[in-house]
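Sanity check

After download, print the first record. It should look like this:
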Amino acid sequence: MAIGIRTYRPLITGKTHMAAAGHYLATASAYRILEQGGNAVDAGVAAGITLNVVLPQYTSFAGVAPILIHDASKKETVTISGLGRWPQAASIDYFNKNHGGELPAGILRTVTPAAADAWLTAIRLYGTMSFQQVVTPALDIAEGGFPIPASLARALSRAGDAFVGDEGGGLPWPSTREIFVPGDRPLETGEVLVQTDLARTFRRLIQVEDDNAAKGRGGREDAIQAVRDFFYHGEIAQEMVDFCRLQGGLLTMKDLADFHVGVEPPAAGSYKGIDVYTCGPWCQGPVSIQALHILEEFDLQAMGHNSADYLHTVLEALKLAFSDRHFYYGDPDFVDVPMEGLLSHAYAAQRSASIDPRHASAGMPAAGDPWAHQGGGSNGSSPAHPEAVAGRLEADTSYVSVVDRWGNAFSATPSDSLGNAPIVEGLGFILSSRGSQSWLDADHPSSLQPGKRPRLTPNPALAMKDGKVLMPFGTPGGDVQCQSMVQTFLNVIEFGMDPQQAIEAPRASTWSFPNSFWPHAYNPGLVGVEGRIDAQVVEDLRSRGHQVEVWDDWTSRMGGMCAIKVDQETGALSAGADPRRDGYAMGR
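Expected structure tokens:
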């Protein structure tokens, strides 16, 4: 069943390789590496580091970068947990005693930088190129500058979508303002942004790699490891810690020395014979799998694309999955997460039966009992039931996907915003402020603990069939990510759309759960829909109890999807990128 959707961008097709990323210059970086003979991982990392340069309002080289990789030669699909950990000096007791039970915006939300380790680990284990080769496109842009797009100019002027984490203070830090608000005048659209300190950081890392090679200390992998160690143990580590302490933060050299990303199997599910992979419950990725498992119980085609019945069912399925996210997801190094039960089809069938086709759940539904679908039992603790809390609906992050000629795939969702923390003087990047996605409720599975990872919103995905890549896909957008990803996936798989059609189709979102960002805004019953959703459908949803807000026709609140689809019979590649933000696709 193919549904025709008018698109405003052409579908990008090819047979050799393809990239789609959240900024056109990042896509160009990936394509440059692919044309030089690099594989999907080399190209994906090049694009990811470029995103750290061209989307500073959304990402940072010392931020987060969860990654999914499929290595065709090894027949291996893995995740890299590009997410930092709380400093050992951080605790709920510390924030209760010193900050009145609040997580103050700024440096105190710092967790260990993870993106640099994630990028370097990815190319060391699964790439073919040197760090210098993959960082050069980003270095060229940081050093030579680039004309900033309207999206960054709006962020700098506090118009349109404000910075994530911006709680009224704008960009108060001198080290940040010197680069982005020189002379107290925000850079405007088209002005050239040069990031000298960030470029110097890249050159220092390249020098470490060169020195390692010159001294004959092993091969490519060892040289990349030396770059990683210089960042986490050497001079750059000390500079990060010194700056953090000067700002009143808690990060130490031991925190950095003890940190490393994990390389681990993905969370896995399936939808009508298609395997769907995400990162684990240290992020919200499994929400997409849970929602798809629930939706597999319904005849979505018979309902009709974006009909009231269809959107109601999708929204209610998402609410069930988000409820389980709230009550069960957390860092599995600290929390016993019932993943087997959560991702079982039997549990999904049980959850689907609770959806009332004519009435929306009034707020976040009650959690299910996944423990009944796996061995073991609950630890008995449970977070407090949320109460309505006002707050912004955050929309940070970016995304990159790559498929190469050898059948490898790369899917990553880097993040961390200028508005959350100050630029480290001399280094040109912010330290990860993902502590904002923790709770100060000791019973919450995502509670703050020393050495624990917050529950992360960024979550790349990868669909496969018969052991081969079908579609890497993902988006920025905070809590809207899984929602836009599920709708885009269904547009392709259920309704036969090509990736560009699937991405441009109008979307809906529920916010009937505690937001992932402090102070965890909760808006029971709230639904946001794009203005292109039929007015009669909107009224029908309201009659079922949804509190519908009609947003702009093309709102960045709905994220910025990118996807690449592989025709497994012909090998043809097709890619789409979202006009809601600055993403583009490129390939041949």
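If your output differs, re-run the checksum step. Summary of this record's structure: Confidence is low (pLDDT under 50) at residues 159-169.
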